[in-house]
Amino acid sequence: MNASGGRWTVLLVREGETRSHRFALTTVWLIGLGSLVAAGVFGAFMAGRWASDLQTPARVVELEQRVDSLRRESEKVTELAAALVQMENSYMQLRGVMSGEVEPSAGDVLLPDIGSVQRQGSDSSRRAAATEPGPRLWPLVEPGFVTRAFGDTSSLGEGGHVGLDIAVPSGSYIRAAGAGVVDEAGEGREYGRYVRISHGDGLRSLYAHASWVFVAEGDSVGAGEVIALSGNTGRSTAPHLHLEIEQDGEPVDPLPWVSGRL
């Protein structure tokens, strides 16, 4: 590049050739060209910054959504872990109850004297059951233990539990918690073999998942009378008695009714 007065001469020579190209530029042109290049560089820089600024809020929103999704998944995992712990504890308890379990059948059920079973319990309990209306007796000859209480929502995908689940070995005596008339005695997908008793004054009791039923619809039963054997029929994962009590058509917690008359 040579300068002569106010003009500049630019020589361009291709590598390996002797011929050159000459361009004559004034100082004003050079300044304008330099300004144009600088403006282009600055514009490209600002465009990059602008594009980056536009992307940042969208990226922040995306990250916030991912964090929220991970938080929800973590909460689900925590709930599942708690449910599994509870199921494992119930399983360990049931192992002790179910040891030596024998499922009764029509040909091999050997029963002790039912009359002696019905006479079990204190004199005060029997007198209370005879004088107080409604289901007042513990519905099992064996105490058992409660594996699921009334209103429990621990099972996934289900509403509040409307009864009381009591774990006992299959074949244990189920007795009427109070005197009354058998409304229903049958078998269904949900309850398995079951008995429903009407006690009057809007009170009814239900005994479900039985392996054997001794009463029929229309039978009159006394308080403490053996009506069935516990089992694992219907929607059930282990031998137990499912007890429900209704008052004027609404389910109530059975435990306050029957726990005082063991």
Summarize the entry for a quick read:
With about 260 residues, the chain is α+β, with helices and mostly antiparallel strands.
Indicate the topology.
Layout: E1 2-4, E2 7-13, E3 20-26, H1 27-98, H2 114-118, H3 123-131, E4 145-148, E5 164-167, E6 173-175, E7 180-188, E8 192-200, E9 203-213, E10 220-221, E11 226-230, E12 240-247, E13 250-252, H4 255-258
Antiparallel strand pairs: 1-2, 2-3, 4-5, 5-12, 6-11, 7-8, 7-10, 8-9, 9-11, 9-12, 12-13
Overview of this structure, please?
With 262 residues, the protein is α+β, with helices and mostly antiparallel strands. It has 2 domains: 1-99; 103-261, Glucose Permease (Domain IIA), CATH 2.70.70. Helices cover 34% and strands 29% of the residues. A hairpin with a 2-residue loop joins strand 12 and strand 13 (250-252). It is rod-shaped. The N and C termini lie far apart (113 Å).
Which features would summarize this protein structure in a list?
single chain, 262 residues, alpha+beta, Glucose Permease (Domain IIA), 2 domains, ten-stranded antiparallel beta sheet, three-stranded antiparallel beta sheet, 4 helices, 29% strand, rod-shaped
